[in-house]
């Protein structure tokens, strides 16, 4: 009897591949693990973030330059916390790049925090009315600029690391996608504006990926049932950070693990993402 050979293709082997992680706190994972490296405390990146989890799972050689508070300019040309621009970590030998950035360009998390604060503290912090401004022409212009800035990031990565596999990784959602679900400490108008805000952020990331020939990791859709008030949250709901815990409205440990699994599934073709 003739032996039939399997038509299944072997999974890609990434062992030893050079991996550079770029992005903001949604990639850095502040408060989730041990800070790394200790020489850059302001960045607040930890060993429990998705870049470290992905590198461990696929045996990658990780250079993690993600940084809390980073905007696209901090990847492109600007120093942050005394560190060089994140793109300086890229080389022609880089094999893999992940990018999660853009929320700070338009004040995404700050807007959510402001919406949950009482009027007095919000005003004192200079955040009053954060989400109410979402419908203004000024913010609409910011959103247009965000897409252009993300595209510039993708183009620079292509130039600096021409052989690399490049992945734009969206932000995990915080708010419930269903407008009927009540969001504590937010008015209906604020929550609706926050959803619009997040939709624009996710869309700008997707369009920048398409414009630069990068792969999109659709974290925004995958996390819809895991919002901060769900039974299985991937993001935090608290306004005030817990000592040693994640920041408000940021990925938690489960969220970082889920994102790493989604990226791993995309790279290996395993389809084994959450």
Automatic annotation (TrEMBL):
The protein's name in its UniProt record: SGNH/GDSL hydrolase family protein
Transmembrane residue ranges: none
Occurrences of domain SGNH hydrolase-type esterase (ranges): 21-258
GO BP term, example: triglyceride catabolic process
Region: Disordered, residue numbers: 230-251
Keywords associated with the record: Hydrolase
Lineage of producing organism: Bacteria, Bacillati, Actinomycetota, Actinomycetes, Micrococcales
SUPFAM superfamilies in alphabetical order: SGNH hydrolase (SSF52266)
Name of a matching Pfam family: Lipase_GDSL_2
InterPro entries: SEST-like (IPR037460), SGNH_hydro (IPR013830), SGNH_hydro_sf (IPR036514)
Single GO term (MF): triacylglycerol lipase activity
Positions of the catalytic residues: 25, 250
């Amino acid at each position: 009897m003739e032996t039939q050979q399997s038509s299944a293709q072997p999974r890609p082997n990434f062992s030893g591949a050079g991996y550079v992680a770029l992005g903001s706190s949604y990639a850095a994972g502040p408060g989730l693990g041990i800070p790394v490296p200790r020489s850059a405390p302001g960045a607040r990146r930890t060993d429990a973030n998705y870049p470290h989890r992905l590198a461990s799972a696929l045996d990658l050689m990780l250079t993690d330059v993600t940084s809390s508070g980073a905007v696209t300019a901090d990847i492109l040309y600007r120093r942050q916390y005394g560190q060089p621009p994140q793109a300086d970590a890229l080389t022609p030998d880089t094999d893999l790049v992940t990018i999660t950035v853009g929320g700070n360009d338009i004040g995404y998390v700050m807007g959510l925090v402001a919406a949950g604060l009482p009027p007095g503290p919000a005003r004192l912090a200079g955040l009053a009315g954060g989400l109410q401004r979402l419908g203004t022409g000024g913010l609409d212009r910011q959103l247009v600029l965000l897409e252009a800035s993300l595209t510039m990031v993708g183009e620079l990565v292509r130039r600096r690391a021409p052989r690399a596999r490049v992945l734009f990784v969206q932000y995990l959602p915080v708010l419930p996608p269903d407008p009927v679900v009540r969001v504590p400490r937010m008015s209906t108008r604020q929550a609706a504006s926050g959803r619009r805000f997040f939709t624009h952020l996710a869309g700008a990331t997707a369009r920048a990926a398409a414009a630069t020939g990068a792969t999109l990791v659709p974290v925004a859709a995958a996390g819809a049932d895991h919002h901060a008030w769900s039974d299985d949250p991937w993001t935090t709901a608290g306004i005030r950070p817990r000592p040693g815990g994640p920041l408000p409205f940021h990925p938690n440990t489960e969220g970082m693990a889920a994102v790493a699994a989604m990226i791993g599934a995309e790279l290996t073709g395993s389809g084994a993402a959450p």
